[in-house]
Amino acid sequence: MALQAANLSSLSFPCHTKRHTRTNNGRYCSSSRLKISSSAAASPVVSTTSRSIRLTYLEINSWIWDIGGVNILVDPILVGNLDFGAPWMFDGAKKFLRSFKIDDLPELDCLLITQSLDDHCHIKTLTPLSKRNPDLPVIATPNAESILQPLFSNVTYLEPGEKTDLEGKGGAKVNICATAGPVLGPPWQRPENGYIVRPEENGLSLYYEPHCVYNESFLENYRADVVITPVIKQLLPFFTLVSGQEDAIKLAKLLQAKYIVPMRNGDLDAKGVLSSVLSSVGTMEAFQEMLAREIPNAKLLQPTPGLPLEISFSSIS
After folding, report:
1. Which tens digits make up the pLDDT trace of 111-141?
2. For labelling, which of 28, 160, 216, 233 has a CA lying 20 to 30 Å from the CA of 171?
3. pTM of the full predicted structure?
4. Exposed e or buried b per residue across 139-155, where buried means at least 16 C-beta atoms within 10 angstroms of its C-beta
């Protein structure tokens, strides 16, 4: 389970670089080729210049990012429901993109995994994905090694503070740095990962961590133009499962973010014992009011599941 962000602030993470490149020739495939749910409405589009990023939300914690021409699939759940192997405890179904399948994915340059639990490292999705793309480069937390090792042959495991370079099929490059996320177990266990992704050429930098749990002392050395984070808290009795609201504001301030892209990773059609005791705190409207008051120059861009949300470097320069 996730610890509060304050519990991570005393940890320090040295920075090391790992090399991870993909040089095979292949035709770049844009995320705009995704099949779209008929229930989806248009997302806001900031610009259409070449130095933009496109973020396509696939619900829960799943994304496709096109960052400077590098296509990254993040924490995919594309086969069946989210049930942690125990549907009697929790069984969550997507609300909009239930028909979106692995075969609907664009050509990928990388699979990015933040955490080792099923809502991020979804074995029912990763097993067929590995058969379809056996040589797909993977960047992940070492906590997920026991799941990923039998499936993928090209995996780079990053501890918080480590970096790696990734080259897309079209020759574009990004740098990916792991940051400290929640601790899902005893306090001495390695934290899970967040990530800061920066294109090699001038362009937008992006920060992502799906629980809004972060190490302040680590992040104070970094900046990110775009922050993807939950903004609505998810609570179990006596325990914060996913943070948000004021913690998301603090995160955006810390990284000097210009855009906040909110996740709705608790917005599922759910049943089971756990769903009956889960509760939410805060609303999108309350967060937007807080953002306007605390960081008036930042913009909130809400993604629509299945449609690319495009953000341009030129719009913030």
Report:
1. 999 999 888 999 999 999 999 998 999 999 9
2. 160
3. 0.83
4. bbbbbbeebbeebbeeb
